[in-house]
Amino acid sequence: MLALGTQAPKFNLIDTISGNYINLQKAKGEQGTVIMFICNHCPFVIHINEQLVALSNYYSEKGIAFIAISSNDSETYPQDGPEQMKIHAQEVNYPFPYLYDETQDVAKSYNAACTPDLYVFNADFKLVYRGQLDDSRPENGILVTGNDLRNALDCLLNEEENTMIQKPSIGCNIKWKT
């Protein structure tokens, strides 16, 4: 996992929704930025999609930008290719850009390991949170609340130290090219 305080690695990736290239500087939030490594087919991501949309809608009004990135190998997993990403984003109403990391260099620069993998950076692009959305998993019976991410964002906005244990995310491994 990236160490807290790490500067956000830069990127310039195609947004599968708009067709435009988006870089971190262009897409950042005034108060902070959430970078989410997700994909279309992972049951862990599907399980939290509704909450990701709700959190993005809520916190974007408070100056927090959300950016989703898929780094899966689309040759082996065509359902995670750019065309399918656009369709999926429209179906679930993603209010954030959904970028395609074809070379997988961005995922490597973030030390992303799975989907979902979440990172919160402050307005100066310093890492203040990395880990899970909450304790809910498919079929574990725990309600999806977004509690861990919500707490991290509230601490950031209130300029308070996040004393909550930052648990690594659990999900599907990123599908690396061979």
Salient structural properties:
9 strands; 178 residues; alpha+beta; 7-stranded mixed sheet; Glutaredoxin; two-stranded antiparallel ribbon; globular
Task: Report what the structure shows.
The protein has 178 residues and is an alpha+beta fold. It has a single domain, classed as Glutaredoxin, CATH 3.40.30.10. It has 5 helices and 9 strands, in the order ββαβαβαβαβββαβ. The strands form 2 sheets. A 7-stranded mixed sheet has the order 2-1-5-4-3-7-8. A two-stranded antiparallel sheet has the order 6-9. The longest helix is centred in the first third of the chain and has 18 residues. The mean pLDDT is 97.
Global outline: globular
Q: Can you summarize the main beta sheet?
A: 7 strands, mixed
Mean pLDDT: 97
Give the amount of beta strand, in percent: 15-25%
Distance between the termini: 22 Å
List segments where confidence is low: pLDDT < 50 over at least 5 consecutive residues. Answer: none
SSE topology sketch:
Blueprint: E1 12-15, E2 21-23, H1 24-27, E3 32-37, H2 43-60, E4 64-70, H3 82-91, E5 98-100, H4 105-109, E6 114-115, E7 117-122, E8 127-131, H5 147-157, E9 172-173
Parallel strand pairs: 3-4, 4-5
Antiparallel strand pairs: 1-2, 1-5, 3-7, 6-9, 7-8
